[in-house]
Design goal:
With 403 residues, the protein is of the alpha+beta class. It folds into four domains: 4-79; 83-195, PAS domain (Beta-Lactamase, 2-Layer Sandwich), CATH 3.30.450; 206-304, Sandwich (Jelly Rolls), CATH 2.60.120.10; 322-400, Winged helix-like DNA-binding domain superfamily/Winged helix DNA-binding domain (Arc Repressor Mutant, subunit A), CATH 1.10.10.10. The chain contains eleven helices and 17 strands. It has a five-stranded antiparallel sheet. A four-stranded antiparallel sheet has the order 6-13-8-11. Helix 1 (4-23) runs antiparallel to helix 2 (31-82), helix 8 (293-317) runs antiparallel to helix 9 (322-337) and helix 10 packs across helix 11 (373-385). It is elongated.
Length: 403
């Protein structure tokens, strides 16, 4: 790359030499010799300037070529984004919409120009905006670790179409980072839950050649795991565990509605599934996945959810202090099996929180946090005294929202 500072210095040196010739005493250089010397100096300067111009021209052509390639690449990725099947909205860290693909504009029934530059929160119902703003505050916390941002965050909310009708949707947040691991943009994937329910209903109604049967289990039953089948949870919550070398149970996953599990998805030698509630399962032969592209496409996102959840449970064990492990575990469980709840206390005070749909024992918490049941019992007691958690009449844990 040609340095413009060098060129400027060269010009200044040449100008100084020519100016020096003009100011030289007449006795030093004969008058008839000044003009030839000056012309020689100007000729040298002209050649140096010509070299500089050629180099700048070459660099300009290279920049134009690079700009054309960048524009072509950007056009390609913009096209992929616009025609992506998932409804996706890109916002700033403050929630201002930067881009919305065609699936998103169709889902919201709004033109892209009516969305870009507007706060995304205006598309949400009033009751859901506090949760949305709380999520933005968490993303923008300076002390928030990179590891906690890498996991996806999901929540349900009411979204509004331009026609003024409302629909329930699941929002999945991904944080986009720069090379310095700093969050710069937010990517929101939108999915209408009514469409998901229709998809599940269609799957349940598939003929027996594709889906073998539907099984039901009561709470606490051990589920059979067959390597030739995947199991889709239609209702309820299933707990997946394995055993350590010392024979201790390790919690490795919670499978909720519309998620899958099965022996073909693990390499663990000890792998068992237990129903935490009454459950309904759909058996899907693995061999049928290669025969139906539609079925494979339907199950692929559910397999990805299982992988992402497993990574979240692994991240819980990465914290050194027990209180940090337990706090991170509660966040994961709130996303996976949590449902919003309002609590009215004796003094008429109203609090909001998240209730776990499945009842987890102190030993379940201990297994997930790699600690003892006694330590979990003591920690839960401290959190109860601090007013951060409580239990309902069915002994389901409730995490109280911060006020």
């Amino acid at each position: 790359m040609y340095d413009m500072n060098v060129l400027n210095k060269q010009i200044q040196v040449i100008y100084g030499r020519v100016l020096g010739l003009h100011q030289q005493p007449q006795s030093h250089i004969p008058k008839n010799d000044v003009l030839p010397i000056a012309l020689k100096e100007l000729g040298v300067a002209s050649e140096e300037l010509q070299v500089a111009v050629e180099e700048l021209t070459r660099q300009n052509e290279a920049l134009l070529t690079a700009q054309a390639q960048a524009d072509s690449t950007r056009s390609l990725y913009q096209s992929l984004f616009d025609f992506a099947p998932d409804a996706t909205v890109i916002t700033t860290l403050s929630g201002t919409i930067q881009e919305a693909n065609r699936a998103a504009t169709a889902l919201l029934n709004r033109h892209a120009n009516a969305l870009i530059g507007k706060p995304f929160v205006t598309c949400l119902a009033l009751d859901d905006r506090a949760q949305f703003r709380d999520l933005l505050n968490r993303v923008n916390q300076p002390a928030l670790s990179t590891l906690s941002l890498l996991t996806q965050t999901q929540f349900t909310a009411q979204l509004q179409r331009r026609s003024q009708d409302w629909f329930e949707a699941q929002l999945t947040l991904d944080v986009i980072y720069n090379k310095q691991d700093e969050p710069i943009l937010l990517r929101w994937r939108l999915e209408a839950l009514s469409d998901r329910q229709q998809t599940l209903t269609a799957l349940v109604q598939e003929n027996s050649s594709r889906l073998r049967c539907i099984d039901r289990y009561h709470r606490g039953e051990l589920l059979r795991i067959e390597p030739q089948n995947l199991w889709l949870v239609a209702e309820g919550v299933v707990k997946l565990t394995t055993l350590s070398q010392r024979g201790e149970e390790i919690l490795i996953g919670l499978v909720t509605e519309e998620q899958v599990f099965g022996g073909s998805l693990t390499k663990l030698t000890t792998y068992q599934a237990i129903s935490m509630t009454d459950v309904k399962l759909i058996a899907i032969p693995v061999s049928k996945l290669t025969e139906s592209a539609e079925l494979s496409q339907l199950l692929l996102p559910r397999m990805m959810q299982r992988l992402q959840q497993t990574e979240q449970f692994l991240a819980v064990r990465g914290h050194i202090r027990l209180c940090d492990r337990f706090e991170q575990l509660l966040q994961v469980l709130k996303e996976e099996i949590g449902e919003p709840i309002t609590i009215a206390e004796d003094n008429q005070a109203i609090k909001t929180g998240t209730r776990f749909k499945a009842k987890l024992t102190h030993q379940d918490f201990a297994n997930a946090c790699c600690t003892t049941r006694v330590s979990i019992t003591r920690l839960l007691g401290q959190l109860q005294q601090a007013g951060k958690v409580c239990f309902d009449d069915q002994n389901h844990l409730i995490v109280i929202d911060d006020t």
